[in-house]
């Protein structure tokens, strides 16, 4: 019993050592351990692109909101000079929405190409979790762009 207690104490001490090396990440689907320096299957760059597109979509939403507010404001304006100023702001915002939408479209097209190219990497083939994640995220971003454009047209 004394040796069993000593073994238990060693196990507990070893598990709480501060200078112990961190365990390797475990990729359950791949059935093996991956070290930190191993490839991230292209996801780090992919998620940077996703974040850029999401920021542009948010910017687009804010501009659409401003346009809706300006439209409401224009309904109560009686002076021609005030109406002209509102129209000028709205035209500038409409142009900005168009530029953002074109930029997002180009980024999404590039993302599609990168998704197909990424399938050639080991562990990233069609149907893998990496591929499914990339494809579903890209589809979701396309859907959000379409929704923003529909909001813009209303």
From TrEMBL:
<keyword id="KW-0175">Coiled coil</keyword>
<feature type="compositionally biased region" description="Basic and acidic residues">
    <location>
        <begin position="18"/>
        <end position="39"/>
    </location>
</feature>
<feature type="coiled-coil region">
    <location>
        <begin position="50"/>
        <end position="77"/>
    </location>
</feature>
<keyword id="KW-0653">Protein transport</keyword>
<protein>
    <recommendedName>
        <fullName>Syntaxin N-terminal domain-containing protein</fullName>
    </recommendedName>
</protein>
<dbReference type="GO" id="GO:0016192">
    <property type="term" value="P:vesicle-mediated transport"/>
</dbReference>
<feature type="region of interest" description="Disordered">
    <location>
        <begin position="1"/>
        <end position="39"/>
    </location>
</feature>
<dbReference type="InterPro" id="IPR010989">
    <property type="entry name" value="SNARE"/>
</dbReference>
<dbReference type="InterPro" id="IPR006011">
    <property type="entry name" value="Syntaxin_N"/>
</dbReference>
<keyword id="KW-0813">Transport</keyword>
<feature type="domain" description="Syntaxin N-terminal">
    <location>
        <begin position="38"/>
        <end position="154"/>
    </location>
</feature>
<dbReference type="GO" id="GO:0015031">
    <property type="term" value="P:protein transport"/>
</dbReference>
<feature type="compositionally biased region" description="Polar residues">
    <location>
        <begin position="1"/>
        <end position="13"/>
    </location>
</feature>
<dbReference type="Pfam" id="PF00804">
    <property type="entry name" value="Syntaxin"/>
</dbReference>
<dbReference type="GO" id="GO:0016020">
    <property type="term" value="C:membrane"/>
</dbReference>
């Amino acid at each position: 019993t004394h040796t069993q207690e000593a073994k238990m104490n060693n196990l507990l001490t070893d598990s709480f050592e501060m200078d112990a090396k961190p365990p390797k990440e475990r990729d359950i689907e791949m059935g093996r351990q991956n070290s930190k320096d191993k490839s991230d299957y292209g996801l780090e760059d992919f998620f940077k692109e996703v974040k850029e597109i999401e920021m542009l979509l948010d910017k687009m939403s804010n501009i659409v909101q401003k346009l809706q507010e300006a439209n409401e404001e224009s309904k109560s304006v009686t002076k021609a000079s005030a109406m002209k100023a509102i129209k000028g702001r709205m035209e500038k915002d409409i142009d900005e929405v168009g530029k953002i939408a074109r930029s997002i479209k180009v980024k999404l097209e590039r993302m599609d190409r990168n998704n197909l190219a990424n399938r050639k990497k080991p562990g990233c083939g069609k149907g893998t979790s990496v591929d499914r994640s990339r494809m579903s995220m890209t589809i979701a971003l396309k859907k959000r762009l379409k929704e923003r454009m529909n909001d813009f047209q209303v």
